[in-house]
Every structure is written in C-alpha cells, then in structure tokens.
Design brief:
Blueprint (H helix, E strand, L loop, with lengths): L1 E6 L24 H13 L3 E6 L7 H11 L3 E5 L5 H14 L4 E5 L1 H5 L1 H5 L6 E3 L3 H11 L3 H4 L5 E4 L5 E3 L35 E4 L2 E2 L10 H5 L4 E2 L2 H13 L4 E4 L8 H14 L4 E6 L6 H9 L2 E9 L3 H6 L6 H13 L3 E8 L6 H14 L3 E6 L7 H8 L4 H11 L16 H16 L2 H10 L3 H19 L1
Parallel strand pairs: 1-2, 1-3, 3-4, 4-5, 8-11, 11-12, 12-13, 13-14, 14-15
Antiparallel strand pairs: 5-6, 6-7, 9-10
C-alpha cells in the first residue's frame, strides 16, 4: 500500500483571528504530525510512505496534481484546521480525479471538532478523531475491508446508505515515549525557517500533550486531552541531538506549557548541558511557571526565546479568560526573561466578551510597558467547544454555533468567523488589532533596538521584510 501524507497548500485561507499581513511570509514550519505518522508507518514496515509538504515546496494545485501523478498513492492522509479546510478538500478532489479509488483520510483539529460534518464531505472517506498515531495505521491496514475497519476505534465515516457511523473514542497514548521521533528525512528539512528565529534551518518539536488549565478561550484540552502527558527528558534530548546531527540549528517547542513541571524542566536543561548540544531553542509557557533561577538554567542550556501566553493587559480581561495570574506577575516574568539575556514574545487578544475599546487599548499599552521583544495580537474568536462557546450556548444564543457548523457542513470562502465582543464590530476589532501592531513595532526606540541586534544578512532580510509589511499597514 502506498501512503502519501499531505500538508496542503494555503491558497484559500479563511480569514482567521489575525490581521492578514501577519498570516503571510512568516516562514515554513515542518508538518510535525505528518512526520510522526510517517515514522510510525515506516517502523511497522508494512507500507510505503511519503510526505508531500506543498507549502515548503511552494506548490499550487497544478503542482499538487503533478505530485499525485508521480506518487500514485493508494491512501492520502491530511490534517485539517478549520481555516484551511477548503484547501484540504480541493487537494482531495484532485486526488479523486486522478484516481477515484484513492482513499482520503482526514484528521486534525477540524475533524476532531466536527467529525460528522467532515465525514459527509464527498471527497472524504474516513475521519480520524483524536490522536492519529494509533488510529491511522489501523485504517491503512484495513482500508479495503469495511468489516474490519468498522472495528477500529476513533474513526467516523459515511456509509453507502448515507448513515454516518462513529466507532467510539480511540485509546489515549499514555506513554509518549512509545512514539518514534518525527521522521524529518521525509521532507527537505533545510526549507524550514521562521522570521523570529536567530538561526536557520529550524524545526518544531513537542514534548507533552494535554493541558490541565482551563482558560475559557482555549480549545487545546479538546485537542490533546485534559490530562497532561509528558515525554521523558532523555527522549526529548535524544531527539534534539538527532536534529543537531541533521544540521538543524534551532528547535521551536510547541508545547502550550513547556515548564509545567519544574524538576522535569531542570532535568531537560541539565541533560542538554551535559551533552554540550550546540542548538538554539524556544518554548511556550505561562508567566506563573517560570522564575529567575529557572530562566538562568534555560538560558545556559541554549533556550533563546520564551513565548508567553498573556492574553489581556487588564485584570478584568484576565478574569474573563480565567488565566489565574495578576498583571504584576506578567511584568515580572518579562523582566526576568530580559535580565537573563533571553528574548520573549507575548500573545495578546483584543475583543473579549464585554471588553470595551478603552480596555483593548489598555492591553496594547500594557504590552508596550511589559517590553517583550515580539508580540502577537489576535482578535478573540469563540472557538467550538471552549468554555466561552458553551457559555454563549447556555444564554440561548445559537448564532455562533450555527455559523461554525454551517461552514463545517458546507465549506465556503464566504464564511466569516464570528466574533463575540458586544461593543465593537468585527471590522472595528481588526482595526484595533492592526493599531496594536503599529503602536508596538513602529516605536523609534524599538526599531533601533532591534536593528542593533541583527547579526546576519539572513536575519536582516527576514526582519526587513516583516518590518516593511507593518510600515505598509501604517500607511493605509
């Protein structure tokens, strides 16, 4: 069986919660989930597997068609997020035109949140809900035997009579060390980069799944499970060493809270130092899961940047999202990070339910005062199955649910992801987000500081390109 795992091109991006200029030309990240699936299938030794990263290869739909004709797959697997669903379906449609017998398997966040709606799409044969490393290989093994496929937990599909069948939840991977490392040889690892990375090429990695926190806006517990599961420090550093040996110079860890457990973080850092690994890396975490001593150790081990999820610059905003931190703690985390010589990025939102325009600009002011090196501003969107989403439904307001479900059933570029602020329109909220980028990045002292930090022509080109986008925005 020939298996092709596809990262679809982004040609029909539904406008997400970020201003358009932020969502383009930010570099390419490897399709980590597909590379892990590929490693799992290769380890079994039953099927041929390849990964087609159309984004890194910069393929349009005709390029995708040519690639499918070359690979001639029996099964195509893709991970769908809601904002790129149309591209996934277009890719599947091309595959079916070339070979009507090819099986299309769709997983990822969108399929997990909307399994039935995904299963009824004519281009989709099987939907994977939850973690795919256990489920997908079983699908491939039994794709031509519906009786056996019906016994595989964690799938949804539409029968010939139109009935949608769900086989029930799949098992959760308790020991993440049982998974192989992502097989980064399945794509050209030299093509991955990031505008905020100090070194190139980069890769991404994950050391844990699940989240025990209950931020009201976040859909991650639905994606990775409510129980936090973590890989061992040895496994993590073994993967880092493998990346170094491949010539990868920076690793971006995509855990929501890398420093969840302090002793584990210390052990990871000490193992990196012991092995003398020459690699830069960055992490995502919460401001209440670091202290200055830990930051110093992270810095010594090669961690160069920390991305903090702050969300709001007002105490009321933090209460709305149930972040369970105070603004002075946020300020302290950024100061400590700066003092130990690491760079930082702060994630912020505007347009929370009931948030006033004045409060949104207070958040922008706070972001400037906290002095992260980079910021990422988004417009709040009530994502499916989050606490805020459920609160909206409890009030008897079905408009948000109907908007998302309508799109999931009949994907269209006309879909307009809903906001739920109550004070400002969507257009006004995006104007605030655009102002946030201009007010933060176009400060003369900030621009001078960043210019002085540039150490290579490649870094200059990346930052210049990003800066010109913001300057162009400011002129509009």
């Amino acid at each position: 069986m020939k298996v092709l795992l596809v990262n679809p091109p982004i040609l029909n991006l539904i406008q997400p919660e970020t201003p358009k200029f932020v969502t383009t030309d930010r570099g390419h990240n490897p399709p980590l989930g597909l590379l892990t699936l590929g490693a799992v299938i290769k380890a079994q030794g039953k099927h041929d597997v390849a990964v087609l990263d159309t984004q890194a290869e910069e393929l349009d739909l005709e390029g995708v068609r040519a690639a499918f004709q070359k690979h001639d797959p029996d099964v195509i697997g893709m991970a769908a997020i809601t904002f790129t669903l149309i591209d996934c379906l277009n890719v599947a449609r091309i595959a079916k035109e070339i070979n009507p017998a090819v099986k299309i398997v769709l997983g990822g966040p969108h399929a997990t949140l909307f399994p039935r709606e995904t299963a009824i799409q004519p281009e989709v044969d099987v939907v994977v809900t939850g973690e795919g490393e256990v489920v997908f290989p079983k699908i491939v093994d039994n794709i031509d035997d519906m009786e056996k496929l019906d016994q595989v937990k964690g799938i949804v599909y539409q029968k010939e009579n139109g009935e949608v069948k769900a086989t029930g939840p799949s098992e959760v991977i308790e020991n993440l060390d049982d998974l192989p490392f992502p097989d980064r040889t399945l794509t050209d690892h030299t093509k991955y980069s990031s505008v905020i990375a100090k070194r190139q090429p980069i890769t991404t990695a994950v050391t844990s799944r699940g989240c025990p926190f209950r931020c009201t806006f976040c859909d991650r517990p639905q994606m990775g499970g409510k129980t936090w599961r973590a890989r061992s420090p040895k496994s993590i550093v073994d993967e880092m060493e493998q990346c170094v040996n491949m010539g990868i110079h920076e690793i971006m860890f995509y855990d929501d809270t890398f420093t969840m457990v302090r002793p584990r973080t210390v052990e990871i850092c000490e193992e990196i130092i012991k092995r003398k690994l020459d690699v830069g890396w960055d992490i995502r975490t919460r401001v209440d899961r670091v202290d200055k001593e830990l930051l110093q150790l992270l810095k010594k081990a090669g961690c160069e940047r920390i991305n903090y999820g702050v969300e709001s610059g007002t105490e009321r905003g933090l209460k709305i999202v149930k972040k369970d931190v105070k603004l002075p703690r946020v300020m302290q985390a950024f100061k400590d990070t700066r003092d130990v010589g690491m760079t930082s990025l702060g994630y912020f939102m505007v347009g929370l339910p009931t948030e006033t325009k004045d409060e949104m600009y207070q958040t922008i002011k706070f972001a400037k005062k906290a002095r992260p090196d980079f910021v990422h501003f988004t417009v709040f969107t009530p994502f499916p199955d989050t606490e805020i989403w459920r609160d909206i439904l409890a009030k008897g307001d079905n408009s948000v649910q109907e908007a998302w479900r309508g799109y999931a059933e009949k994907p269209s570029m006309a879909f307009d992801p809903p906001t739920y602020n109550g004070n400002l329109s969507k257009e006004e909220l995006f104007k605030v987000a655009e102002d946030a980028y201009k007010l933060f990045y176009l400060r003369p002292d900030y621009m001078v500081k960043e210019a002085l930090k540039i150490r290579s022509m490649g870094e200059f080109r990346r930052k210049f390109k990003a800066g010109m986008k913001i300057i162009k925005l400011a002129a509009t």
